[in-house]
Amino acid sequence: MLIDSYDRVVDYIRVSVTERCNFRCTYCMPEKPFSWVPKENLLSFEELFEFMKVAIDEGVKKIRITGGEPLLREDLDKFIKMIYDYEPSIDLAMTTNAFLLKGSAQRLKDAGLKRLNVSIDSLKPEVAQQIAQKDVLANVLAGVNEALAVGLKVKVNMVPMKGVNDAEILDVLEYCKERDMSVRFIEYMENAHAVVDIKGMKSPELLALIGARYDYSDEGFDGHSPSHYYKTSEGYKFGIIEPYEDDFCKTCNRIRLTAEGNLIPCLYFDEAISISKSIKAGDIKGAAAVLKEVVKNKPEKNRWSEDDGEVSARAFYETGG
Ligand code: SAM
Ligand code: SF4
To answer: Which of 18, 22, 28 is the pocket-test mutation for ligand 1 (most atoms within 8 Å of CB)?
Structure first.
């Protein structure tokens, strides 16, 4: 079992399979980065799988595939199947912008994928285009429909921003409610890569908007999920991710792996240790030692709530969010 210095069990790893993306979301990757990680530095799926086996053997129970946009990477279903065949009980999920999902949902499900988180920041084509800097909505919604039709469980992520998509909080909530999908509103996290003048919305503002239409109760946290849950009087459960709250990190059980093999203990900080050398050399013991070291070094909490003018230098498209 992997336990950090604050007695938190770490049993969840998010694996970014590529930092590349077909969107240019204003809050994440508004411009094409100056340089991408050279292709030869990326870990192959076989190499990533070698590390997944190490992580599973050390007690990891949940793996989320993310990016960049994970569906840009060819043969993703084969990687999913490798993990599934090794340990079918693994909670295997993926976070995607869904632009390329139509036509591949069944294949992903057959490979062993259990759940999907899809980012939908707007249901208006022009607003979705303003955020992603590309005409994306029709493809995204078609992808979601197909995922639901093949029986994948889908959750929706929305990043509410003042003056951009704040008028659509209830529309997105209702779109999800009607389709029996859970929605999570993610408070915008400032980072050095985003467009500078974005004004995110915090939990009290979101709850005021939702409360104007629905009575809701506070359901608190559910296990290690980063979402604070609320339930409408009709019984629909929605979540808000509040990284600026003081207790947000208390139950964190996650670490992250970048596509080039950097193992990251916390989304906020720059610290990382590479597993690439050990994995490429077939040194399983070495890779397990790095994993334990990273877990041991996991910081107690992020610094988003500290208003000291510092902004996280971490790119969400690199860590996978
Ligand atoms: N491309 C995929 C997608 O957009 O779902 C997966 C990667 S994306 C980095 C993962 C999640 O991070 C998305 O739900 C996205 O909305 C969220 N995200 C990215 N930048 C963010 C930011 N600055 N603040 C809050 N959430 C952010
Ligand atoms: Fe791409 Fe996802 Fe970042 Fe948008 S949030 S730019 S879709 S990685």
So the answer is: 28
| Ligand 2 contacts CB of residue 152 (under 6 A) | no
Per-residue pLDDT at 307: 62
Buried b (16+ CB within 10 A) or exposed e, 162-180: eebbeebbeebbbbbbeee
Is there a domain that residue 5 lies in? Answer: no
**Could you tell me if residue 102 is inside a domain?**
yes
Q: How far apart are CA 32 and CA 61, in angstroms?
A: 34
Ligand 2 atom nearest 317 alpha carbon: 8
Task: Count up the domains in the chain and report the number.
Answer: 1
pLDDT in tens, 148-205: 999 999 999 999 999 999 999 999 999 999 999 999 999 999 888 998 899 999 999 9
> Which amino acid residue places its CA nearest to atom 8 of ligand 2?
68
Return the CATH number at 212: 3.20.20.70
Q: What angle do CA 49, 32, 276 make, to 5 degrees?
A: 25
Mean pLDDT over 291-304 rounds to 87
Q: Would 2 be classed as within a structural domain? A: no
What is the extent of the structural domain holding 255? 12-319
Which band of pLDDT confidence, cut at 50, 70 and 90, is reported for residue 53? Answer: very high
For residue 97 and ligand 2, the question of a CB distance below 6 A is answered with yes
Report yes or no on 110 lying in a domain.
Answer: yes
